[in-house]
Amino acid sequence: MSEQTGTSGVELKYMVSPDDFTRAGEASSKVKNILKQMGISPDVIRKVSIAMYEGEINMVIHAHGGDITVTITPEEIRMVLRDDGPGIPDVEKAMKAGYSTAPEQVRALGFGAGMGLPNMQNYTDEMKVETEIGVGTTITMSVHIEG
Amino acid sequence: MTIDDLLKQQPLTTISEGDTSREISQVFCCDLLSVAMSKAPADCAWVTVMGNVNTLAVASLTDAACVVLAEGTVLDEAVIEQAKVQGLTVLATGEPVFDTALAIHQQLNA
């Protein structure tokens, strides 16, 4: 993890370990704590936490990990989740609540309900999915800071 | 009602003790973590049978007041250790989810 403060805001970088469910959520927890310290409103923190955790879990389940860059500016919190995984064959289907391709062992842990991408979309103000089969997926999400 | 108040009246075992002076706002029941992630209200007592390390992550990210493991759900030693490190209160009971949630709800509304 690295942290950098510049004129364009605070930038945080995290690696997401492949196939390690015990560590999934670490990056989201760290970001949550930093946002708390910065005095960001609980509502915004909750949105960022949910969206980022779902993204992290997806990276562990489907993409053998990846990296996350979070940029915090006075206007928004932007999260870029990048992986070199298999890509999403049908984004429209994947965005549908209840649609899941997660394996059985992942469902046994309480995930794979087909809520990941829909949750990410519902809890962010902007979301863009760029994916290419065999190359990877980059998801850019942004939560606006009101007032 | 605080977690301390809850512990005085309910036959719950403390697996990991966090800040037990924390207020409980309401009861929440769910075992699907993605659903819990989006729906668990802050400061809730979350009753579940899903006892793994990700339960802790979801409880922490949603700011649940405590996790109540029902139906005799047990946690691995490593997971208990992590709950302690995170300062998360985890309680346990052999009773079913509904009975446990109802008892907490009744105490909250007494």
Distance between the termini of chain A: 30 Å
Order of helices and strands of chain A: EEHHEEHHHEE
Assembly state (oligomeric): heterodimer
Largest sheet of chain B: 5 strands, mixed
CATH superfamily of chain A: Histidine kinase-like ATPase, C-terminal domain
The 3D shape of chain A can be described as globular
- How many helices of chain B? The count is 5
By CATH, the superfamily of chain B comes out as HprK N-terminal domain-like
What CATH architecture of chain B do you see?
3-Layer(aba) Sandwich
User: Count of helical segments of chain A?
Assistant: 5
Task: Write a compact overview of the structure shown.
The complex is a heterodimer of chains A (147) and B (110). Chain A is built from five helices and six strands, in the order ββααββαααββ.
Structure, described:
The complex is a heterodimer of chains A (147) and B (110). In chain A, 33% of the residues lie in helices and 30% in strands. With 147 residues, chain A is α+β, with helices and mostly antiparallel strands. Chain A has one domain: Heat Shock Protein 90, CATH 3.30.565. A six-stranded antiparallel sheet of chain A has the order 1-2-3-4-6-5, with helices on one face. In chain A, α1 (26-37) packs antiparallel against α2 (42-62) and α2 packs antiparallel against α5. Chain B has a five-stranded mixed sheet, with helices on both faces. Chain B is of the alpha/beta class. Chain B has a single domain (3-108), classed as HprK N-terminal domain-like (Udp-n-acetylmuramoylalanyl-d-glutamate--2,6- Diaminopimelate Ligase, Chain: A, domain 1), CATH 3.40.1390. Chain B has five helices and five strands, in the order αββαβαβαβα. The interface between A and B is medium-sized, with 24 and 21 residues.
